[in-house]
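Q: A reviewer asked whether we had any structural model of the full assembly, not just the individual parts. We don't, so I'm hoping you can provide one. Inputs are below.
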Amino acid sequence: MKDRILQTLANLRKYALEKGYVISLLYHEEDSALMRFANSAISLNTSEHLVRLSITAYSGRKQASYDLITDLAKLDEMKKGIDTVAEMVEHAMPLTYDPTIPAYAETFVDESNFDAGLTGMSNEEKLAFYNKSVEGLETEDLKLSGIFNCGVNTIAAIATPSEHTLYFTTTDAQITTVLAHATEKWEISSGGSAQRKTDLDPAPIHQDLSFLLERFQTEPRQQLPTGTYDIVFGATAIGQMVGFMNWIGISGGMWKRGFSFMSEEKVGQKVFSDKFTLVDDPTRRETFPFQRDLMGMVRKPFPLFTQGVFEGFTWTQDDADEFDAKPTGHTVLHRSLVLDGGNRDVASLQDLVGMPRENDLLYIPYLHYMNIVNPSKGVITASSRFGALLLKQNGSVVVPFNVRITQSLLDIFGDKVAWMSKQTVPHNSSASYGARNPTAVIVPAFMRVNGLEISHSNPSF
Amino acid sequence: MRDQIKQQIERIKGMGATYVDCRWYPFEETNSLLMWNGNLKDASASRESGLGIRVLYKGAWGFAASSDMSDIAAVFDKAFDNARSAAERVTFPVRLAEKDAIQAVFTSPCKVNPFEVPLADKVAFLKAMDEKLNQKGVEQRTADLTFMRKQIVFLDSEGSEIEKLITEVFGGLRVSGRDEQGMSHERKFRLNQRGNSRGWESIDAGFFSQNAERIVKEMNETRAAEPCPKEDRSVILLPGIMYLQTHETIGHALELDRILGYELAFAGGSFVTLKDFGTLRYGSEKLTARADATLTNSPGSFGYDDDGVPAQDNLLIDKGILVGAITGRQMVEEANAKARKQIFDGSSGANRATTFYRVPIERMTNINIDPGTDGTLEDIVRNTERGIVMDGDKSWSIGSNREQFHFATEVAWLVEDGRMTKMVKNPTYKGDTVKFWNSLSAVGDRSTWEVRYVDNCGKGQPNQIMQLGHGIPVCRFDNVRIGE
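A: Here is a predicted structure for the entire assembly that you could use as a starting point for your response.
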């Protein structure tokens, strides 16, 4: 298939050159399957095979793009798409800067993230994995929800300035399991991320759910008073906040457009806790990485924050062109963010709950519906979900109703950070809007932050 | 193609499926343009075609989709196989509410096909708007246009054959600038219902220009304003935020799939239970809300849903009491069975998919609030002792069961003794859904009522973006916490 894809792109490039066009082509093919569970049944079982071709045409400072959902047999349709965008670009308006056209210096093929075992999993195997994850936990009142989302993603690129190509193929799986009480409306959750079939292990999911379930079924429930708490965030919550950091904290383009709480003056300054070291690391296969960006730049580990010190912004090619900056190899569909672990040996929820503690700790595993209240200050807001616990100083556990936090990322990752787990885990943050784009961040299993405010507290589940 | 699809539907029926449908998209095209600080950052178009197949087998759904039309039998087979696998884990076998077999055509109102307008004209429009926005105090300015047009052919094993041609037009303007402390403030304008059609004719340069001047002025005034106080006040929501309040805390909360727990893996549930229909006082007596897919000229009006059920106008909340939900054929059957009574009298025709490669789920149509009797905005302000007028969505976050929320708005004006006094910056408000709607103390009349479009409502797994509308008046809520 790889040869057929690359040959098709070569044919399309030849066609464009013959017509005198300047274009770049981005090919995207996905084979996606999603088994969705709800009310303890498979509520949906889907398969989608889609081929997309994105064509960008350039004419001096003008550019335009045209996207097709097509298939490899439709060469004429693709050529027509090239003609269409070539006509469009003549009517576009010149940019105020010179856009850089991809000119690959060498061909790069990366199939190292493809796993035949994962892509070959049958419906029966997926169901068996899922059944194992929740074995013995479902009841008449406790209903299972979740997804087993997996697929193969292939990306290839070519442009008229060079005959060289880029080619990436990746397998991925994202697993979410939720047990929800049908009448009391509480929910607990666990999940996993896989790049290979051997990454899949139902045991930790079962262990997490069993432990949480016992707490939720036996411990007292409580509406927490609003106010200040020492909070331990779970990996999913940490991953979600790092994801927002990726959006409004480290992008040079977002800063230049006034949608960031970071600035050039902060480069080289200590912004966060000295426990906070964040790297974009494309060597980590768990993040479904790109070792070249879509301009062909070699991607290597790129430090963003080292012990709290801001190392500098990332720049996509287009932002770099517009704002006269140097591109940093970040013209990618997603980054490979890794937040280093700390020095506390807390690998599991059982470890956390079993730890001696000098005061009460609020454990928040997941943040629901996070949004940005004030980008200039990095203020986000979200509610807890999926199994929050109040770990009392005396060793007992209380199940709190969901709470809301409205805080700045500068505070959450700042000097209030007390510790982070030594152990790190991949948090699968893939969304299935539009084209498949498997994404994961690697974060500590737990992070404790002292003195954060709870601004709202639900009176019930 | 239709004959081939019909043959495949019959073939899969013959293999034991209880229901089969196919949505064939001969084409779906989009055209997006974005001008940012004078640069045409996006001039893109797309064209797609393909088909999506749903198969119901032994009470379980299977779905498959493909853009490859060369072997449609294989797509039908894949959907059937998926259903057969899903049937291994069934707890409540899917049943579909009765409906009529319908042969129909629906075309959304559009006078000038935007895909026949030259790109140069669209770029010239954006350039003119960009120049209007390029004023003192404005650091970032954008003008955007998005056009969509799709043909959908729906065929099912019950004899329905429905063809739809839907055209959508979205557009808007946005400015932002920083205050003396370096904090960024923004103000937007989005194109909403204008007249009875939404083709290129709704792109009215004069109307956009008026709004360009207004948002620049309001953004600059906000930059100079004092911070929003942290206290309890009466909150008067203008349509630019009232639509989102309605969307998030009535619309999503009343999607029947959420109520029944079908979205717990991702989007969340609802605080509403089946016992609440007919009894729950959702809001004050001033609140009457409806799902009206028959409204003229809105993305939430689509003729027939993707179950093949005709668009309808249904009450959701009647004088404060919860009476209805947003439903499709599957969920009403399950809800009635689980409630052991007839809550829903058939599908409300709200099962929609964003495109051929996504499966239909309960989606909002036009979730509207009826105009009230409390007069104009000026009347409501005049009758407010200590309040705040808010407009423009900036940030929104809602609890997983839609039970509580936190919103930030772009602009706000304090109200003291019946007068709007001064603007404040970084306004926010929060509340608990039922308590909040029960504090509804004034509903504006028809002069305050507008239909706002939503072009980016997300839901479902695989994720789907849907377009819809909200007809909403100006509303006032009492004792609301602001400024957090």
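A: Points you may want to mention in the reply: Residues 205-223 of chain B form the longest helix (19 residues). Chain B touches chain A through 87 residues (CB under 8 Å).
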